[in-house]
Design brief:
Elements (H helix, E strand, L loop, with lengths): L3 H11 L3 H8 L3 H8 L7 H13 L2 E4 L7 E4 L21
Antiparallel strand pairs: 1-2
Helix pairs in contact: 2-4
GO molecular function: DNA binding
Protein name: Transcriptional regulator
InterPro entries: Cro/C1-type_HTH, Lambda_DNA-bd_dom_sf
Length: 94
């Protein structure tokens, strides 16, 4: 499931324009504009394509529950292990 608000919020989280979402999802720009403005409710296959593109860019969708549907950024693994501040020294502080 993908709501209009989730689509707009997801784009904002990753700083994507509608054009970028259209390119990544292979969904027409007019379809995205109309969907986000509640002027059109696209087919589920179209909403799935939008959601997959946003998920590939790092968005995690929160389904309806007590707080309602939402979005957040997926946590990513850090590229290098962190060193606790109390263990930093001139040798390991890069």
């Amino acid at each position: 499931m993908l709501t209009q608000a989730q689509c707009r919020a997801a784009r904002a989280l990753i700083d994507w324009s509608r054009e970028q979402l259209a390119d990544a999802s292979k969904v027409g720009l007019r379809t995205i504009v109309d969907f986000e403005r509640s002027a059109r409710d696209p087919r589920e296959v179209t909403k799935d394509a939008l959601r997959r593109a946003l998920e590939a860019a790092g968005v995690e969708f929160i389904e309806r529950n007590g707080g309602g549907p939402g979005v957040r950024l997926r946590e990513t693994e850090q590229s290098a292990p962190t060193i606790p501040i109390e263990d930093l020294s001139a040798e390991n502080d890069e």
